[in-house]
Design goal:
Blueprint: H1 2-7, E1 21-26, H2 32-42, E2 48-54, H3 69-75, E3 80-86, E4 97-104, H4 111-134, E5 138-141, E6 144-147
Helix pairs in contact: 2-4, 3-4
Length: 148
């Protein structure tokens, strides 16, 4: 393995099957994703040992930046509410994307309903991305990912 990895300048590691990773969870001011990950971990759905939960600032970053993003999305007639899970890099929201999803919405939904839909899709996308990472199903190739 070392010879192949060196030839292609690859980083690699070998772990025993079932050997969980030690992970820290970084959190923005919205706690719904944190609660979902902790719930999944407690139920045994995440093969990991959560060793820390860290938050150092507020960083919810919707497409409609500023106050009341879901209200503004409703005012503009948004048709899709989506979420992206990506690796963290020094540049904000520039990391390789692991998973994404969208949910169709319409004019009948209030800003509060749009926020609920947004939180649901955020939780699902993050949980899928974390599971894919923990299962070693993501290969980072520069600024993109290959997901198996």
């Amino acid at each position: 393995m070392r010879d192949v990895a060196a030839r292609f300048e690859m980083d690699w590691e070998m772990r025993w099957w079932g050997q969980g990773r030690r992970v820290a969870i970084l959190v923005s001011r919205h706690d719904h994703c944190l609660f979902d990950l902790l719930w999944r971990w407690r139920r045994g759905e995440l093969d990991a040992e959560i060793v820390a939960v860290i938050s150092n600032h507020r960083s919810f970053l919707p497409a409609f930046a500023g106050a009341d993003p879901y209200g503004r999305a409703r005012e503009r007639g948004a048709k899709l509410i989506g979420a992206t899970a990506h690796y963290v890099t020094e540049q904000l929201d520039d990391g390789p994307i692991i998973d994404q999803d969208v949910v169709r919405v319409d004019h009948r939904q209030s800003a509060r309903e749009l926020e609920r839909v947004g939180r649901d899709v955020e939780r699902l996308v993050l949980a899928r991305a974390v599971s894919l990472h923990l299962d070693d199903r993501v290969i980072v190739d520069g600024k993109r990912t290959i997901v198996f």
